[in-house]
Amino acid sequence: MTSMNNDKDSPLKRRMVPRGLQKLIEQCLKIYPDQTNPLQVTTVLKYWLGGQDPLDYISMYHNPGNPEQNVPPHWHYISFGLSDLHGDGRVHLPDTVGGPEPRSGMGFELTFRLLKTSGDADERPPTWPANLLQALAKYVFQSGNRLYTGDNIPWRRSLDGKTSSIQHMLIAEDPQMSRTETPFGWVDFLQIVGVSNEELEQASRWNGKGVLNILQKEPLTGGQWLITNMARAKSVFELFPETLKQLELDLEKEGSDLAGVGADFTFKELSKNVTVKKEIDPEDEITKSISSCNIEIKKEFNEGLEHSNSSDMINPFHHSQVPSRVLPLDGIELTLAPYAAKFLVLAIKDRIRHGRHFTFKAQNMAVTFVAESVTGTIVNKEAPYGVLGNWVQILIPNSLMPKMLDAFSGLHKSADNLKIPLTYEWSEHNLKFIIDNPAPELLNQQGPILA
């Protein structure tokens, strides 16, 4: 439960301010010296007392913008609670893996910049952005996944709960809030940027930082400070079609930075005569991280959030944290959930074709496609399919790529338009892909794949 604070109730006026919070307040005052008591959304029942909202406070500042840089007036929302405000273990344990410069709590707070409209004439900012930041904080606390610049967050509904076309988010660096050193470690300020369906789609295909750079070039799409305008009806690619053409050229030349997505799947080993040999469904959780590049991890929770995570991921071909015994497979049949089908095209065209790898990660297992040129894998041309712990690897030979791209050409459609089940089979490679809803009983089985 949260409440709106009047100035007299603000923690900024209290003498006993936690030391971590005090440092963040000082950083805010560098930008807003005349707003010592901003309006705040405050959690009534604190998280460490059993409350559900992890953010203690969300301050809402009036930012006058910068006419010289064509930055319009807007509301600036800043969270307090993802970092360690108290330093006594009530919410965050000290960072013991940060080396000489540990992070404070999660190492970041969230910000959001909302364009002021005529409806804000009473000088009271809308509170829905505060609820949005609280929902994102819940996801971080529940999943343990940190957020990073360039990450994308599919939200699939208007951020303000109305009818806006701004229905998703990208993560940027806040242009005014720099890294802050507190008594309990460093804190970065990550800015939530509202984007359209097409902008999120291209960020997923290419990379989030690249799309943010495009949005920054035009005041209509956020400008230098990436201010979210909920009234914006057209994407940057509709407003400036030449940017999409350039992006397509870059993708064709350089490939995609997206190295994986979260997706439900099951698989079976196929014997050499393409009959089912045995079903495989693992028990132990694969290494918690799959890729050193962007990976979109599907995490269901009460806000239905998905999140593309990057820097928490390690190299998928680093074997020190997984079982050493490799189980080779004669062939493989992979059943993939419909909502992830469109990423098969990206995996082959924009990743494997460029000599890279791509991973589909479920809750307790993962399958990685690898190109012939990828090193450090458990598969090769002679043994193209293998399992290591709860991790499946499939080698996609160069000769098979054109056939796959031709077969997958219709998968750009949304999952709702796919007529499932769809089956793709390459018998000479003893390989079969099925687009269908994986059987729940297989997803929920708990059986080790190695004796």
Notes on the structure:
There is one protein chain. By secondary structure, the protein is of the alpha+beta class. It has 9 helices and 22 strands. Strands 1, 2, 3, 4, 5, 6, 7, 8 and 9 form a 9-stranded mixed sheet that branches. Strands 14-13-10-17-18-20-19-15 form an 8-stranded mixed sheet, covered by helices on one side. A 5-stranded mixed sheet has the order 12-11-16-22-21, with no helix packed on it. Helix 3 packs across helix 4. Mean pLDDT is 83; it is low at 274-307, 309-322 and 442-451.
The tally of strands reads 22
Radius of gyration from CA coordinates: 24 Å
* Average pLDDT metric: 83
By secondary-structure content and strand pairing, the structural class works out as alpha+beta
**Uncertain runs:** 274-307, 309-322, 442-451
* Beta-strand fraction estimate: 25-35%
Number of helices: 9
Sketch the major β-sheet.
9 strands, mixed
N-C termini distance: 49 Å
Helix content: 10-25%
Shape category: globular
List the helices and strands and how they pair.
Elements: E1 2-5, H1 19-31, E2 39-43, E3 57-63, E4 74-80, E5 103-115, H2 128-143, E6 152-154, E7 168-173, E8 180-182, E9 185-195, H3 197-205, H4 208-216, H5 236-239, H6 241-254, E10 258-262, E11 265-270, E12 276-280, E13 294-298, E14 306-309, E15 326-328, E16 332-336, H7 342-351, E17 357-361, E18 366-371, E19 385-388, E20 391-396, H8 401-407, E21 422-426, E22 431-435, H9 440-443
Parallel strand pairs: 5-9, 10-13, 10-17, 16-22, 18-20
Antiparallel strand pairs: 1-2, 2-3, 3-4, 4-5, 6-7, 7-9, 8-9, 11-12, 11-16, 13-14, 15-19, 17-18, 19-20, 21-22
Helix pairs in contact: 3-4
